[in-house]
Amino acid sequence: MAQTKRWGLHWLLMALFSLIITSGIVTPAEARELPLLRVLLAQQTSADVRVISGTYQWFDEETNGIIEDAGQKTWTASAVGAVINLAKDNKALAKSFNGPLLLKAVGSGENILEVNGKKYRGSLRVYHLRSQGTNSLALINVIDMESYLYGVVGMEIGSGAPEEAIKAQALASRTYALQQRDRRDSFGYYYDVQATQSSQVYQGIAGETPRVTQLVNATRGQVVTYDGKLIEAVFHSNSGGQTEDARYVWNSDVPYLRGVLAPEDKYAEEMKGSAALAYHWRKTITARQLANQTLSLTGKDPGDVKSLHIAEMSPSGRVTRLEVMGTKGTISIDKAKVRQLLDTPSTKFTISGSGASGADLQVLSYGSSGVTKTTVLTTGSYQLKSSGLAVLTATATAISSGGTSILAGSSSSADEFIIDGYGFGHGVGMSQWGAMGLAKAGKKYNDIIEHYYNQDRRDNRLRIVGDWGI
Q: Is 91 exposed, middle or buried, given 0-12, 13-18 or 19+ CB atoms closer than 10 A?
C-alpha cells in the first residue's frame, strides 16, 4: 500500500529467507527505454548526497541549465527560506536556486548515488516544498521501473519466497506503481509513489538480491489490466483465509478487487515463530486501555468501559463497526478506525471476555446469487430475505420461516478483552502468504494473479500484457 494499502512482509521475511543466485542488472542503455518513476524518499530540511559510481551533473530544472559536474564530491542540499542552497564539500555555492534541482545520471556506466547514507540507482530530484507552506525539501529518486522493482519486490514478499510468488509480486508491484504514476500525474503531483508502506517498501540497492533481480527480469515489462486498463494491484501480507471486497474497506467497488477464499494463507504457520502470527494472532486489551484509546481517537470519553460490541461485520468476517459501551455512553467506531483503536494486525477478529458482545451466529439464506452465509450478532433482530439478511431493530429477536426466537447476548462489566484474530493487513487484493502457498502447491504466477484479481473467472477481462501496458 499502496495511501495505506501497503502491508508488506519485509519485516517478517528478511530474516527467514537468504537464497541467492546469479542475476543481471538492466544496463543504462536499456534503462533509457523504460518507464521512469518518481519515488519520494523523504521530506526534510537538508540532505547529504554523493556519487558512488558513474557520471552525474547538477541541473537547474527551472532554467534547464547545467550547474556543474557532480564529480566525486560530497554535496549538501538545504532549504533556506524559499530557496535551495547547494554546498560542495561544505563550501556553499555562490548562487541559490528556486529548483527543482536534478542530480542527473549522464554516464554510460553503472550510475549509483548515495542519499543520506543509502545507495540508489538513477537520479535525484530536490524539490522545495514552499508551495505547501513548509521550509523543507522533497527528495525524489527518479529511476527506471525495473531498477525500482529490484529494490521493492524482495522487501515486500521476501527474497527467498517461491519463484512463482516472487513473479506474481513483481507483476503486482509493477502494475501498482504504473497505475499510481498515471493517477498522480493527472493531478499534478511531484512524485508517483512513496518509499514506505504508504505505497510500497523501497530500499534502493540495500533491498536488492541477485535472485529477486533475476525473477523481476523474467517478468520484464509485464503488467495486469482489466478491460484494457491497468488495475490498482493492491496487496497485503495475509488475509486470514479469505480476502476482502474493496467496498468494505475503502468504499470503492471494482470487479477485480472482490474477496476470494484463501486457505493457502495458512502457509505462514509452516514457517513457525513470528511468521505464523501473520495468519493467527491474539492480543489482550484492558478496559482502562480501551477507554483511554477511545478518548484519544475520538475525543469522546466513554467513562468506565463495560462492554465492547461488534456492531457490524463484512461477509468475510471483518469488523466494520465497533461499539465501546461505557458509563458515559456508547461510542461507535467505524471501519476506518477499528484497527487504530485496538492496534490489531487486521480487522478479522472476535472478542471474548466478560464484557464482550460479538458475532457468533451463522445464518444461511438462498437467493438469486445462490447460498449466502452471513455472520450475525448475538443482539439484534433479523429477517431472512431472498437477497440475504436485513437488520430490522436492535432487539434480541431472530425472525425466520420457522418462527421467532430470542437470542442471548452479554453486556456485563469487564476488566479485559481478548481479541482473537486472523490475517495481517487490509485484506484486499493479493495475499502475499497465500501467493506463496499457491506457488508451493505448483501454481504459476499467472494463476496466482488470476485467482486474486479475477476470482478465477478466466473470462479474459483480466489480462497480463507486456511492454508496461504502453
A: exposed
Within its chain, how far is the Cα of 312 from the centroid? 24
What pTM did the predictor assign? 0.82
How far is 386 from 35, CA to CA, in rounded Å? 50
Parallel, antiparallel, or unpaired for β 6-7 and 36-44? unpaired
Q: Reduce the secondary structure of 75-94 to three states and give it as a string.
A: EEEEEECCEEEEEECCEECC
**Do 39 and 193 contact (CB within 8 A), yes or no?**
yes
Cell of 426: 487490509
Number of residues in the chain: 470
* Strand partners for 388: 385
Residues of the chain with pLDDT > 70: what percent? 80
Q: How do residues 255-290 score in pLDDT, each as one tens digit?
A: 999 999 999 999 999 988 889 999 999 999 999 999
Degrees (nearest 5) of the Cα angle 69, 70, 74? 155
- Single-letter amino acid, residue 275: A
CA distance 363 to 466: 45
Which cell numbers in the block locate residue 417? 478483552
| Distance (Å, whole) CA 358 – CA 356 | 6
Sequence letter at residue 45: T
In this structure, are residues 129 and 140 in contact, taking their beta carbons and an 8 Å threshold? no
CA 196 vs CA 2, 7, 123, 150, 199: distances in Å: 9, 10, 19, 15, 6
